[in-house]
Specification:
The chain starts with a helix and ends in a 6-residue tail after the last helix. About 75% of the residues lie in helices and about 0% in strands. The longest helix has 28 residues.
């Protein structure tokens, strides 16, 4: 019975704190756009994707040049 005198006030404080945090989140706009982030991932801008595809051959060419330069810089062991 003595433990109830401790547990009831602790649970009331915990519930009041949870309700206060919930209302703080609602007032700060945390629940304004529930579907936006999920849709942004699924239906993102295709323009960015096309730009990265156009840049890809240029990036591959520069990568190939770097690899060739690295091979030229290698020191061949003497036999």
């Amino acid at each position: 019975m003595a433990s109830l005198y401790l547990l009831i006030p602790v649970s009331l404080i915990f519930c009041a704190l949870a309700i206060a945090i919930f209302f703080w989140a609602v007032n700060n706009g945390q629940y304004d756009d529930l579907d936006g982030e999920g849709e942004r991932i699924l239906f993102g801008d295709d323009d960015d994707l096309e730009l990265s595809r156009e840049d890809q051959p240029q990036q591959d060419k520069s990568l190939q040049e770097e690899v060739q330069e690295g091979k030229q810089d290698e020191v061949k062991p003497s036999e």
